[in-house]
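Forum: Protein Structure Q&A
Topic: Joint prediction for protein chains with partners

I've read a bunch of threads here and the consensus seems to be that you should model interacting components together rather than docking separate models afterwards. I'd like to see that in practice. Below is the full input, 535 residues plus whatever partners are listed. Could one of the regulars post the assembled result?
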Amino acid sequence: MTTETLIEVNDLNFSYGTRAILKGIQMTMPRGQVVAIMGGSGSGKTTLLKLIGGTIQPTSGYVKFAGEVVHELNRDALFKLRRKMGMLFQFGALFTDLSVFDNVAFQMREHTNLPESMIRDLVLMKLHAVGLRGAHHLMPNELSGGMARRVALARSIALDPMLIMYDEPFTGLDPISLSVIGNLIRRLTDALGMTSIVVTHDVQESLKIVDYVYFIADGVIAAEGTPKEVRESVAPFVHQFVHGEEDGPVPFHYPAQTYKKDLNLEDTFA
Amino acid sequence: MPRRIVSSIQNIGHRVIESTWRLGVASRFFILVLLKSGTSLRRFNLVIRELYFTGVLSLIIIVVSGLFVGMVLGLQGYETLQKYGSESAVGTLVALSLVRELGPVVAALLFASRAGSAITAEIGLMKATEQLAAMGMMAVDPIARVVAPRFWAGVISMPFLAAIFSVMGVFGGYLVTVVFIGVDEGSFWSQMQSAVDFRFDILNGFIKSCFFGVAITAIAVFEGYDAPPTAEGVSGATTRTVVTSSLVILGLDFILTAFMFRGVS
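Posted by a regular:
Agreed with the consensus. Here's the joint model:
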């Protein structure tokens, strides 16, 4: 495994209006690794993926992908850069008017001049890699959630990208599909020499397959480390997150005035 | 009391600003669609595919409605004209009403509810299910690949549908007055032929339907693309497409008629 850096995130800030979503994020992601970004819902994980993909602009700081600062690129250069990236959306985001085959062939037809016979072979190879060669003629509405996710995975590796970003790839899957997707992420990363970023809150499944983990809470990196370090960590936030404890640094109760005051009991018991 | 008055004035102000702002966004989007139409014109099979969904699938409603509108026109026209002994002019009445007004306008209203709503719902749902975002991440511009082909398909379909509507209407009028009631066939067609002018009637009707086609599909694609990515958002956008396009069609029709038929007797 090489340790050359593919993605460098430096002092990255992002806000929606006055609401700060990401505050001073600092990350480096080496080529060939599977990196997980974990954190509770609304912690800014998906925003980070959007910033790497260049669909939104940072307030300050930068993301550098393969040596290029993403937000400084013009539209054509950004589109050129995106051909080196793949993204797996939470529920697959397959094109519902195209068959499984045409979904996987989509990028090849849009971006290359390959003859149809070669596209056919390539598509079948990509589908074979996710175990769905036999489903190439089906329409997206005929697929189960796990199958749709696998087809989307085949589609995202269609042009052999350098990076694949997975947005919550484990959401809503049964245990078998979940481990199939997990193993596919690891195997494809190794076999194709890609880099993978997995945004997830499925701790147990992702710790099995990733090389490095970042925890994001309230827009900052709360902790980071290898899966082994994370499992053994005694840091309160990491411990609470990894073991799924109800209360801790992330409180169970949403901030409120005192319970007594809400129930109008303060005068009675004062 | 004065506070309520102030707040209601503020409300009106907010609405006006919001509507103006939205109109600006829509205009910019429309220009963007035109600028990014190159892909659609180079790869015309993308437009042909959409022509099937917007044009061909709207045929049934257009043909059936055209036929009935023509039959009603024939019936009503005959009832009125026969009082003055000029029932043979019923062909002229049917043809002029259809070609100048009813053909383009009613076909456009039907097209807005049949194809416009479908375009909005499809684009809105593609947005809600992240298909447009996925396309963008694959370095394919959704406006060029999804929006522009649908826009051009709508613009091309509309004049054809309006023409088919008028033809079916004339046929409906013929069926009722000539075949069922027994008006003289020769005078039905010959009066129609001498009264309908190619430039003033048919060409103007065609131009009207082109304007309507642009208006309906521009509204439909914008509403779809702008729809909030939720079930409520898409349903609201679909309704807005039908309501806004219907009002725009009727408004545009008045303006176009005023320009086209000014001073024509």
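The mean pLDDT of chain A is 87.
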